[in-house]
Amino acid sequence: MSSWNPSQYSSIFAHITLSDISQARTTGSNESPVLEVTSEARSKGYDSVCLPLTTDAWKKRWTNMCLVPSSPGDDKKKRESRRESKLMSRDFSAEKKAEAWREKPVFEANEVTMTRLGEFTCIAALNFYNNRLDEAESVTAIISEWLELDTDDDWIRLDTEIVSQTRLGLFSDNDVSLRQALHQELSYASYLNIQTAILPAPRNRQYTACYARAVNACLQSSPFMNLAIRLPIYDPSAAQDPLSPASPSSGRPLLPSPKIQRTSSLSSSLPPTPRLVVSQSSQNTSHPKTLEEQIDASWEIWDLIRSLCDYNPRLSLALDLTPPLPNSPSVLGKWSAEAVRYIFLPASAFIANAKGYPVLPKPTQAFIRDSITHRPNIILSGVSSGIHSKGSEVAYSQYIRHLERTSTVVQAAEKSGTVENFAQGYQDYLQAPLQPLMDNLQSITYQTFEQDPVKYKNYEEAVYKALSEWHEDGRIVICVAGAGRGPLVARCLSAIQRSKRDAFIYAVEKNPNAFVTLQGRQRNEWKDKVKLLFGDMRMIELPEQVDILVSELLGSFGDNELSPECLDGAMRLLKSDGISIPSSYTAHLAPLSSSKLYNEAKSTKDDKNLETPYVVMFQAVNLLSGNGGGPSGQCGPRIQECWEFEHPRKETVLDPQGLPLTNSHNARFAKLRFHIPHAGVLHGLAGYFEAVLYRNIGLSIHPHRKDQISKDMLSWFPLFFPFKEPLYLPSNSELQVSIWRLTNQRQVWYEWHAESFLYGLGSDLGLTSAPSTPPIPTPNVGAPIATSSPLIDAVDIAPERRSSVVLDTLLPGRALVKIGHTSLHNAGGRSSWIGL
Amino acid sequence: MSSWNPSQYSSIFAHITLSDISQARTTGSNESPVLEVTSEARSKGYDSVCLPLTTDAWKKRWTNMCLVPSSPGDDKKKRESRRESKLMSRDFSAEKKAEAWREKPVFEANEVTMTRLGEFTCIAALNFYNNRLDEAESVTAIISEWLELDTDDDWIRLDTEIVSQTRLGLFSDNDVSLRQALHQELSYASYLNIQTAILPAPRNRQYTACYARAVNACLQSSPFMNLAIRLPIYDPSAAQDPLSPASPSSGRPLLPSPKIQRTSSLSSSLPPTPRLVVSQSSQNTSHPKTLEEQIDASWEIWDLIRSLCDYNPRLSLALDLTPPLPNSPSVLGKWSAEAVRYIFLPASAFIANAKGYPVLPKPTQAFIRDSITHRPNIILSGVSSGIHSKGSEVAYSQYIRHLERTSTVVQAAEKSGTVENFAQGYQDYLQAPLQPLMDNLQSITYQTFEQDPVKYKNYEEAVYKALSEWHEDGRIVICVAGAGRGPLVARCLSAIQRSKRDAFIYAVEKNPNAFVTLQGRQRNEWKDKVKLLFGDMRMIELPEQVDILVSELLGSFGDNELSPECLDGAMRLLKSDGISIPSSYTAHLAPLSSSKLYNEAKSTKDDKNLETPYVVMFQAVNLLSGNGGGPSGQCGPRIQECWEFEHPRKETVLDPQGLPLTNSHNARFAKLRFHIPHAGVLHGLAGYFEAVLYRNIGLSIHPHRKDQISKDMLSWFPLFFPFKEPLYLPSNSELQVSIWRLTNQRQVWYEWHAESFLYGLGSDLGLTSAPSTPPIPTPNVGAPIATSSPLIDAVDIAPERRSSVVLDTLLPGRALVKIGHTSLHNAGGRSSWIGL
């Protein structure tokens, strides 16, 4: 999406209304009204504008053609399709016009806001554009807000949405495909080279599938247009079950009729902003929704739309913050995993501070600050109406800029030494995990990781502590297993110096290229304090067994770069009472939602990409799990430990060379149970590790503990285990995740799987198996059979055990009900394994 | 699977036990014991045998290697992995053996039942096999039933299942991959050229994912082996929530530990048959399961296994009918949609009739009769033990044969004139629907449909009735629109003759090839009673307008062969008070489960195949919907009407040629709501039609009404709308199906989608947005700001409307909770449209 402001901050948009345009028309300037208002917006510091595509003239014509005029006093049927009343009115004139329009959908010039195109020099914009500017340049178009893609009147919906579409290449130019209002508007917006259009908000949960289908058809038929769905963050008036009619005024029976519904229950004035009237008390069927549930319901509408559009990357959200936000960050966190490209912020969402200036309430402040990470376009609306006593229109955008500058993400990104700063540009970027055992790393890779100040500081501290506490006097022998370009060797030497112990270092490295660097450093720096040995730590022989074995073989998930296998092979180098640094490490998982990561992983259309874990710096991500407990009371915490590896391990059967006979002891399995407090879509699992280097010194990328253990450590981004198909998880459900670490003599791989459960109600269906009256023998089917034949039926006495089962089980109650599962991922290690 | 009996009936297998084999060993025959028992089984009339692959010697060795010997008096820990107790016992000798075995898994000769292979002439089998027979010939192997693929002891599970697998082509022959017990047995069975192995029953719902993963690994590593999972139709002892431990004797805490579980809770004697002890009263957490719920739970285990194995066609079920069946056909119907290749039927499932002969209880009878359609292999077990006083061993299989002969399916298939007889070989075969408007049909296609006696009889009846009731005297003009090879013309002539009316027929046909046939029939049969006209009914001009327009343009879903569009084009040929035969037709849908159809549709790995509706004669199919109502009370019936088309339609705007300006009036939409009483997997939708030809004469393939309206009509099989991804539907859930008929000037297509809902419990999470105590102003982040700045926060007063929302919504309650949805199918008509 283009904008006047290419900075790394959010763009701030002015929301231009039809009335703004018509007022501009009266100024007598020689520019067009639209150019007038847009240049005025630029002069006020806005980055861009969004404005309606059509005028009231179009609404009037469409209404006359397609709707029956409202008759006063009949509230329930104010709007009705022309087609519906045809048989009664026998007035074909409007319907004939509509059919002619449906066949050849053309706007009249006064029905659209923008018509002037082509060469035009705008003085105010000269600094951005050198040669030309037309009215639609970098404008975001707002599609007619009165279009109801989800009305329950089928014929109105047909005239609203695209009924059909041109299939490119299939037809000659003579083919005129039927395109109705929405398609007509998008088609005109495309003609104007508008990049993004904002669609009217979905209003009717009962017909969201229709809305979604129409949007999907538009994405297919307008292959270069970005569509943003305007969505109020919640709609208090829709506080019912998803299948109940949304409007309390509906007079229709609730049972869906198999025939097309022909009456409309919506009021004739379609509010462009969400309905804020709280009218739950007038509803009867189910309990009124809490604010959190309403936000979940709003998200559910979005989820349905984008799912039906198959996560199309051209589809995004214009999140409407008109309703006041709750103080519950957890329910709002879900939006960080969604494609929120616009935030619609009306002046009414601001409150006055003590001095009368417009500021946002705390929850909205926090939400905006968190959203800044994703650089949404913020649309300010109604800010020229002066509803706050102090500060001009400019005060609103200045306040937004203030929130940006003071957000933790922006501050962290601007501060050197933070992960956020280090990882600029790597957010949500999928990287294949390193396989340092199979591949020899490049020097640049070593260099990147050697930049990490925290990791090596902690290693030095661990070695220092181990040396200081070493139980014997005299010479201590250290082996650095996997020395790379030497950072651990240098830290060990420093630790030796600090500890004032007599110690010697063997440095083992199997990468022949890195070994060149090591030789240089030995010659120049380390001299005879270090002995270099070239070879694989699983095969190499040392002149003596060592006291301390130091290695840095950990991956984002702990064991995923085969540290357990390598150290199994190196343990023969360590004395039986020796120390391994690290001494143990654990792998941790949490369920994750991220439409962005899901789209990235599936983007190549190759299933293999959804069977491989990735290293990712998470950003547009939401962890779905809550703090444990859950409906069953048996769920673990938000992030759960899978398994642990300890070194040295003593209980393995070894061959004469000191190597394990098989690798089966390094297989692992974990079954984790998570509480899912808010509805969400499972796209994958987030993987983290935590390692104990020595005693209380460790390394951690566990989100809740990393700051205590190894703050600002840069070397590891988390691991992302994707799922091929998104799994919908309802609010207050439970998720059981199974993950395996599997191995043979040559490979290690992970398989993962998830099942979801909900506390449902026990079946009220009764039981049909217990005959309460004596059964009546039924006649045999087929030919008559002699009475002594073995084929004659027994008199049908229910066996004892059967009825006892029945009697025991007729109690009603609740049960944890299975509601879905993923497929088994990376089954059999087909696509992702790590060579030993 | 090969069998000795190639007939179209089920094969009956004898279940041979280790004790049968060891008794045979003592007969002194010069054949091997296994050959002795198998030839004896053949002589008793069995079609084949299944027998255990391994002996007790193997069980003993494996137990000694991998388990700790049980210590009397310690019930809770009878079995424990060797590895577990290593640290305590420090006895490595068994573990060393186990590691050696894990590295090189080889049976000793006395550990398997079959060893003799190669050239061997068996006299008793000469009539079947001319040259050779070995012990394993056409035997189904039963894998060691004591293998626990789902035990909660990780190390035992590892020694049981395959830990790893050989990747064909990746390694040299020297690579010895680790293969443990299951893989070792399957590998040996493969070596014997055994085609199918029956795996031990899953026992532990908590670890079903582990069982499934192991099975999937076996399917990958044994690429030619068929695997059948033995599954008791229900397990009364597992009457709990799916996530609770299955065994009531478990002493473990319920909270899953992130570390590996190391204690085993299973008893040491693993019953080969399911546990029938009803012990629900000793459980506390949730309500005990009803028998129906237990059957659903058993199916859920199967569903999880086959889903994790990605619907592998080599995976099937050996359904174990040891537990007595309930009298509830609806809960048992689900098994008809599954790959039940074996039915395990012990003598204990039989009861004695009045004469003492073994017969089955009514529910089992009905189940077996219904299952016959799928020709399962029936395994009779324990039938030689003489538990029934009358009838020898032979009585059991004779009784099964009797059930077969008297089943309605077999009887219908053997009776000519029935659909079942006509459709032999077409069951579950996916056919692309005809497109008679776009393609000119072949003569053979016409011939097939002309065989239908009922359809043309009803057409003749409708024309006869219309003629008889015609309101004017004098000449009546009929047009047969789409005459094909002439069957409708002939029936119209016959109706004219019967009605004694003066009538004349125009016969219109656009297929030039069929028109040749028509000309022949006119010359030879019809003479001047019929005028033939060549051309498309939408373009052709007749010499006069007609009184009755007869057409047969219906597809399986009514309008899917474009009858509405063709008749729109032909209506100008009909007088304004004329009659169309048919006068209307409706489309009907029901949600459907069928692993077979799902596998068929996805078999080519081309997504397009899952976006196209198919014509299918349903067999291995289960309709998931119940009779309406549902938790919300708002669900429609089992099969629901989508929409209707009527002819002539009068309310359309027409152009001067009498044709509609656009086709938008033929667009349709239906939203249907189904109750799903029993857990199932949605694989697609079943589509049916019903047509009114004239007054009360019609055509119908609606399963509940076809027999009243057009019994034994052969021309239409139902339509199958597939879903790309199976959707799990819990018991007592609701399914909302949306389906669209969409159109442009040149094409018609369907799109379909489904959403599932469950009555869950309202969130108990409370609401965090209503501060009950006055909020404390928090300090600003960032630099201090002057007190008059617009950037100072407001004192955080919750707006009025916010708290009013909160107060209204804090009531607890139940709600219909969304739990999943399919993707939008055939979105944009990409793959499946019908040309106009």
From TrEMBL, chains A, B:
Residues 179-405 form the PRMT5 TIM barrel domain. Keywords: Methyltransferase, S-adenosyl-L-methionine, Transferase. CDD domains: AdoMet_MTases. The keyword Methyltransferase applies. Residues 69-89, 240-291 are annotated as: Disordered. InterPro entries: Arg_MeTrfase (IPR025799), PRMT5 (IPR035075), PRMT5_C (IPR035248), PRMT5_TIM (IPR035247), SAM-dependent_MTases_sf (IPR029063). Residues 420-581 form the PRMT5 arginine-N-methyltransferase domain. It comes from the Eukaryota. Residues 242-279 have a biased composition (Low complexity). PANTHER family: PROTEIN ARGININE N-METHYLTRANSFERASE 5 (PTHR10738). This is Protein arginine N-methyltransferase. It comes from Marasmiellus scandens.
